[in-house]
Amino acid sequence: MAQASNRMLPIATIFLLCAWNLVSGQIRYSIPEELEHGAFVGNIGKDLNLAVEELSRRKFRMVSASSIQYVDVNRRSGVLFVNERIDREHLCGQSATCLLSLEAVVENPVEQYQVEIEIVDINDNSPIFPNSEIHLEIAESAVPGARFLLEHAHDLDGGNNSIRTYQLTPNEHFTLDVQSRGRRILPELVLENFLDREKQAKHRLLLTAFDGGSAERTGTAHITITIFDINDNAPVFRQSLYTVSLMENVPKGSLVIKLNATDLDEGPNGDVVYSFSSHNEESASKMFTINSTSGEIQVKGILDFEETSYYEIDVEAKDRSVPPLSAHCNVRVEIKDVNDNPPDLLLNSISQSISEDTPSGTLVALIGVTDRDSNKNGHTDCFISPNIPFDLKSAFINSYRLITNKVLDRESIPQYKITVKCTDRGSPSLSTNKTIVVQISDINDNAPRFTQPSYKIYVTENNAPGSSIGSVTAFDPDIGQNSQVTYRIVEKPLQQLPMSSYIYINPKNGTIFSKHPFDYEQFKSFQIHVQAQDAGLPSLSSTVAVNVIVLDQNDNRPVIISPGSKTHVNSSVLRSADPGYLVTKIIASDADSGQNGRLSYQIVQSNDPGLFTISRNSGEVRSVRRFKDTDAETQRLIVQVKDNGYPPLSTTATIILKIAAESTNTQPDVSEPRKDFQGSERLTFYIIITLGATSFVLLMVIIVLVVAVCPMGGSSAHGRGCSLSNCCCSRELEYQSSSVNLQYVPDSNLIPNFLEVHGNGSLSENYRCKIRSAPETAELAFTRFSPQMPRTIERNVMNISPQCGKLKGNWSEKPNEIHYSIPEELEDGAFVGNIANDIGLNARELSIRRFRIMSAAKKRYFEVNLKNGILFVNDKIDREQLCGQTLTCLQNIEIVTETPLRLYRAEVEIQDINDNSPSFPQDALRLEILESTPPGTRFPLQSAHDPDIGTNSVHTYNLSPNDHFTLNVQNSSDGTKSVFLVLDKFLDREKQAVHTLLLSALDGGIPTRSGNAQIIIAVLDANDNVPVFDQSVYWVKVIENVIANTLVINLNATDLDEGTNAEIIYSFSSYTPDRLHELFSIEPHTGKITVNGVLDYEEANVYEINVQARDQGPNSVPAYCKVVVEIVDMNDVIPEMTLMSLSSSITENATIGTMIALISVADPESGENGKISCYVPNNLPFRLKPSFKNSYMLVIRTLLDRETVPQYTINVTCSDAGSPRLFTNKIIVLAISDINDNAPHFTKSTYTAYILENNTPGAIICSVTAFDSDLGQNSDISYSIMASQIQGMPIESFVSINSENGEIFSQRSFDYEQFKNFQVHVQARDAGTPSLSSNVIVNVVILDQNDNSPVVVSSLSKNGTYVMMPRSANPGYLVTKVTAVDADSGQNARLIYQLIQSTDRTLFTVAHNSGEIRTMRLFEDRDSTTQVLIILVKDNGHPSLSTTVTATLSLMDKTAAIMSDVSNQPQDIEQSTDFAIYIIISLGTVSFILFLIIIALVTTMCHNSNDHSDDCSLMHCCFGREIRKNTSKQSHADPRIAPNVQPTTNVMEVRGTGSLSETYCLIRPTTERENGNCILLTPFGSATRRSNIKNTDVHFSEYNQQTKQKPNIICEVGQMNADWRSSEPHIVGKISSQCLEENQDEIKREFNRRHTAAADVDYIKASPDLEDGLPTWAPRFGSQHVENLEPDEYQSNIYMGGTPVMLSSKQDQVVKQDGQHSASSTKKKKKRTKRSEKRESKSTKEEPENE
Length: 1747
Hints:
- By secondary structure, the protein is an alpha+beta fold.
- The chain is built from 21 helices and 116 strands.
- It has a five-stranded mixed beta sheet with strand order 1-2-8-7-4.
């Protein structure tokens, strides 16, 4: 019956519940959910009283706000049927009533009906649990009655079809309690009996949910209950004591032992965590670490046997329960010794400095050594570095003495750093070293020596009295007072006056001052001697010569000597003189010389600056141009003569020139220059022949000399010549006469008699040569030529005197050892022993022999009474501080006596006394024990520490009496004791929460000492209480849309436990839906529930929140409560509007009342909040017409016009009646469609176009534009030209138009002269139906162009017309006038006249505007009689047009031809004369250069001849280079090896730098003797390099026989210097050919003067320069013009060995003062620069082969 009634329900619902309300126009149907597609709902056509045929005609349709069309209408029958399956739960959720709102719409006319369909629920859903598996975790300690809230099931059906009840499968421990809370039915699980985890660890139950439908449906979920274990078992170790052995210094991370403790519990209660207990010493925690998980103990620090031989580690194992249970064990780690300690040195220096004359055997320091290692690892051996004048002697075991064994020299080595190295006997052995710095004090054994063997000072004449002219510097190798140098001048007469009347010297710094001005004419140089004396005792001194050279100054003005000695000169010149005519010549002289005497001439003032010029060098005054009639007859010139000095001096001369008038007879003037020219032509020819012949002869001489030189150069390398052994002899004479300034290397620390040689290139080592004098009776010894280590010196082996030998024997005796024993803590002065008697000395000898104690300790614990020899305690001794826990404590002391020097050793044993009490690391020990800890549990305690040893250390422990704890003391194998506290009875925290005990430690000394520590035991609580809420259900009301964090309720639960067991954590239950987590949050510690999201009444009006409270204790059991939150409705929902637009566009001619759209509005709220009203703006031609409740029609209110408003944006606004009111709006965009109701219209009423005449046919003239307000085809416009005529011709023959864009084109070229404008009528028509059109007028204006050239209309219109005019015409004379016309007008017809070409531009001018031709100046005789003028006539158009006309002017004068012939002849003569002069200058220059080449070749031949003619041997070399003892001490040399040198086996080239301006070679003989080889320091030149080495051995043997006391040379490595070669920019420029040509005599005199000075001054060098293989004379000067330099500007020259140049610091001034360079010499200099670079690179490559 139930099933039958269900089938009949839809039919009954349709027919019985159907109702129609004709007044309201509403209809309502009711159908069940889940009907199939096509199911009958009702005959809506009949219900609305509509005929069937009307449904299609009036477009009947159903409109729904939903996106799914659930129902539809059959227009043929009017039946409303189901279109889509309807699921009530999906459509309406849990709402009690489910309505589907629709609207039925018909048109013509428009009508709207509201239809509601009620969806009735059926039982089609079963209850469903959120999770099919429910997991619970309950501690086995949970008490019966505990309740556990379960997840409730959900049923989508409503009413009776929802959930009704729950059932649970039967079991022994749990029951189900079902509670109804509002619309929800919730199940709770209740514990009936105690749980036992050991019997059953898990329980599985089945929970079933039943609904209330007629056909009952169910849902199930499985409950899995896991029983939590409680922590009732502590971890257990396998043994209580573990013993491990380790070697010291094992690497970090090494495994010591792996511990293992077991726990019978499970989970965290069974997880064991290992750690070091708090009772461990800090040293053990620093050295070891334990892995908390695995129990592995690893090395953390560095194990040192000497620090601690064993470690005891207390390890604690805890489980992870709270509170945890623990167990303890002891790990003993024994450390084994290895040799890891180097010896420790203690240096007791007797003297930080000793005198350099200290005798051998002097004691310097006592050295004590200790080693912390034992056995052989602690035995040490010490030694010092060799090759020093000191020795290390052993005194006792691990005790040494440092003494001197040679004579010391402070100047050689002022300080010794003695390294003492000690090594132990371990394996592997270790060593340590310390450095003793011994300063050598000075004695005055060195005299001052000057930095240079001689000095040169340059001072200009007329110097200021008292000014500094130079300085000398002397250095003394000694220090302190011995090195303080004072200077004085050695008296010597100078021109019968004492030297002190001229010169004064500063005694402190050696600065030399002049007492009065010097006169270069009185004397040019003089010599003074300066003495330097030190302040030592006795004082030593040395003397040096200072050469003072007086330099000339520019103090004489030039004097004019020609013409005459007067400053005013009168002369005359013909007016007809040609340009370049020699007017006069000024000759002047200057008494000064050099650059000061070089004169230059200059015109500083004249009447006409462009008329005369003067030769700068010769003084010749010449005319620049021809004289004019306008030039003044008297010309006044002021000529300045200036020398080249600095500052220059000058004088002036005034020349008065008279310009004589020309002769009236012109014919002789024409013939006279011809005769002079013929005579000078012959002379020029003879000069050219003579110079050419001279050049040829000189060239032949050069060829002969070159042929002669080449064989000589070749034979020098292979033939007879000076061999390698006598290389020094080639410059012996030059070396003896030169003043060489030997200097130290800047960073060298050499003593005075050392010469440092730096290697470079292939010679990769440095040498240091020492020059010393051997005694007369000694045989000359030659030192081997070989590299040695840097900073080494010759060590002299000293013979040991008999006394030293005796002393040495005393040191080697075995010392006596003395032993004493005393207790610690003795007072100062306590007796130790009579050490004087023990070592066999009388008390009287103690002071005489300086008896004293040397101890290695920092404190001096013992002293000796020198009166009685008793050893007593000097400072209180604490054995524990001194020796720690070492069983035997010894103090070693050393006793030293002198005359003779003896060393004794004694040791004092310090005995222990019971002076320390046991002490605990902490006065109070704190323990925490759980009240559930079982009896028998052991707790390790901290051990007491006693610094004493043996029986005086800790003996036993005692514990104060109590009821719960006892004491257990265990003895370790090393004698230490471990203490454990043992629990005897269960603890009860409720009876006694804290226990206080007293632990005492007693030692075994007499009397007994003790130490106490307090033990405080805190009993920890067990978690045996669960939290409890005040009530199980809380009701709260909250307004919707409250802000976040708004408080909902503050829950409170209490727990009777303490500590963490009473700390409650609140949270939502695990069954709380995610939506509730989004809306609410709970504070875990306070229980405050706050709003987290947005509460919406429309979404849900009630929320149920399940809250649980759980304490922080282990195995905590939660408590539950429920919070019901009711939501209070607010007006917060904006009305929802649905637009159903019928058309998106409408024509602009639509009628009033036409419907545009249907609008439906809905608001889910109720009451006033759900009442809605809608409206549109009043300014729109639309209005809203209500149809049903919350339904409107949008219709047209007034007529539309698309051109006015093409589109409407309609804003429909709806609002509810709530407070505050809420609004919503929708935008309807309605487009108005177009009709053709507008004709096209142009942008202008008329158009005007401008076009140039002569335009190109087809060019665009202009364009017209029309617009149509319509759209689409209605706005498409086409253009056309209306028919008309121009001058009888159709308009189409003149213009055309583009029908699409309105562009007008010309059909022909227009002529401005034909017509100037015309009109065109243009029509624009649209494409609408019917079409509309409009017209416009276009005015076309023709513009004129410049298309006509000017036309000459005057008498000059024909080219070639002659115009006659007198020669005597004045300036401004009107010659003729050019007249022209232009057919154009305006600016195109404006004409301009211009003279573009003429015979003489200075004669005529043309007026720009009138065309008048006028003269500019008077005609001259030389002006041509025929003048041709070309005049240009152009208009002002753009571009301008022009024409030209030629006017030929004829001057009426008969003498024009004659004057023309005369004016041409001097030009030819002048040209031929200039050419001859150029030839003479060229041949003269060539002859002079060839002459210089001959001089250079002759000089080279002579030099080579001298080199080969000298037959000097090695003996001559040694004698030629003999250096006196004093000289060797004062020399400071820095010779350096040339880079990239490939030295031969017995030759090394050394090139000097600084003031050492020569090159030297070091020669080693090929044969070696037993006592060494000779190294010879000799000058070395290019000729020496080419000599062979055949006779080397012979020269060495002769030299050994003849020489008794000559310098020996010792080589020693020094520093490297590669900066030896000069660069090309340092080469001084050569004398220009222009200077030589202009004043050859003066140049010769200057050349001779300079070479004469070069003979006395050794810094001037000259060398041949090669250009492309041809020798040229190229002098290389240093500071040659030193007389022009100021004293403070002078710097010594630098000669770079192996290079052809000498450098000067004043190179730029030398270049300027050597003369002016011509352009040709500048080019040559650039070429020479490039060639010199090539030669240098070539010479650099060839030098190794040559050497």
